[in-house]
Write a structure and sequence with these properties.
The chain is of the alpha+beta class. 35% of the residues lie in helices and 24% in strands. The chain folds into 2 domains: 75 residues, Nucleic acid-binding proteins (OB fold (Dihydrolipoamide Acetyltransferase, E2P), Beta Barrel); 161 residues, de novo design (two linked rop proteins). A hairpin with a 2-residue loop joins strand 4 and strand 5. Helix 1 runs parallel beside helix 3 and helix 1 packs antiparallel against helix 6. The structure holds zinc ion.
C-alpha cells in the first residue's frame, strides 16, 4: 500500500549504520512511524527531509507492518531552531508532547497546523519561547480533549478581577473575591496572564501566537500552562526535564 503524506518529523532514531527511523506528525494519519533506508548518509536522497523538525512531504509504502520512506521533499527546515539551545529544547519538548497526545492513524490536521506555527515562531524568534511553549501546551491539551473552563469564577461567576486563581487539576478558575481555594493546588494569575491563558484556549488558531507578554505576566502564564500540562499527562517527559534545567 502506498501513501503520500505531509508532516513534521517529530523524532529521529538512528537505526543500524545508515538508516533512520522517523516519527512523523501527519495531517491525515496522525502520528506515524517510518523507516528511511540509508538516510543517515548525507548523500542519500532522503537525508534532508528526514531530520528532526523538518516539515515536508513523504511518499511511503508499507512493507509488512512498517512504513518505508520512498521519496521525500522538505518544505520548511526551521533552521533558526539550531541557533539557540533553549528554543531548540522547547521545540523538542513540544514534539514529545505531540507524541504523547496525538493518536495514531487518525486525522490530526489541527495538531499539524499548531506545530507548524509553533516551530515557525520558535525558529524565527519573533515571540518569547516561553510564550510559544505555553500557548502551544494549552492549545494542544484542548485539542486532546482536556479543555479547561476559563470563562468565569467557578464560585460566583465573576469574569474579571485583578487577581484570579487557576486550578490546573480541575481546569477551573476562582476570582480574587472568592479567594484561593482550600486544599487545592492553585496558581495566582494577574490580568495579563489571565487574558493570555484565555486567549490560548479560545482564540482562533491563526491568531494563537499573535500577542505579546513579558515579565511577571509571562512567568505566570507559562507556569499555569505547564502545571496544566503536567496534571493531564501525569508523567514526566525527558525533554521537559531537560528544558527545566535551563530555566
Ligand atoms: Zn468568585
Amino acid at each position: 500500500m502506498n501513501l503520500a503524506v505531509s508532516g513534521i518529523v517529530l523524532k529521529v532514531s538512528q537505526s543500524g549504520e545508515s538508516d533512520r527511523f522517523c516519527t512523523i506528525l501527519t495531517g491525515d494519519h496522525g502520528v506515524i512511524s517510518a523507516f528511511a533506508k540509508g538516510a543517515k548518509n548525507m548523500k542519500n536522497k532522503n537525508s534532508t527531509a528526514t531530520a528532526q523538525f523538518v516539515y515536508g512531504s513523504f511518499e511511503l509504502f508499507r512493507r509488512r507492518d512498517i512504513y518505508m520512506i520512498d521519496e521525500s521533499q522538505y518544505e520548511e527546515l526551521y533552521t533558526g531552531l539550531r541557533e539557540d539551545i533553549f528554543r531548540l529544547s522547547v521545540a523538542q519538548y513540544l514534539c514529545q508532547l505531540t507524541m504523547e497526545l496525538v493518536p495514531e492513524e487518525q486525522p490530526a490536521e489541527d495538531y499539524l497546523r499548531l506545530m507548524r506555527a509553533a516551530l515557525w515562531y520558535l525558529s524565527e524568534n519573533t515571540r518569547p519561547p516561553l510564550l510559544v511553549k505555553a500557548a502551544a501546551e494549552m492549545r494542544m491539551l484542548s485539542l486532546a480533549g482536556y479543555m479547561p473552563d476559563l470563562v468565569m469564577c467557578r464560585e460566583c461567576g465573576n469574569y474579571e478581577h485583578n487577581t484570579m486563581f487557576f486550578m490546573p487539576d480541575s481546569g477551573t478558575i476562582r476570582c480574587g473575591s472568592c479567594g484561593r481555594p482550600a486544599g487545592e493546588y492553585a496558581l495566582t494569575l494577574g490580568r495579563g496572564a489571565m487574558t493570555a491563558l484565555r486567549h490560548s484556549i479560545y482564540a482562533e488558531q491563526r491568531k494563537l501566537f499573535a500577542f505579546s507578554l513579558s515579565g511577571e505576566s509571562l512567568k505566570q502564564f507559562s507556569g499555569a500552562a505547564e502545571a496544566f500540562a503536567l496534571s493531564k499527562i501525569e508523567k514526566s517527559l525527558t525533554t521537559l526535564e531537560f528544558l527545566k534545567t535551563m530555566m
